[in-house]
Fold this sequence. Notes:
Blueprint: E1 2-6, E2 9-14, H1 19-23
Antiparallel strand pairs: 1-2
Amino acid sequence: MAFTFGDSRITALDILTDPERLARIDLSVIDDRPTPPG
């Protein structure tokens, strides 16, 4: 999901819903949880 802002308002909203494209995205780069040991 991406937001575009202008004049203190949301002017655009992009939402990715294609399951095949979503499956190819590496979300680990935005995971800020600590990695469990082991």
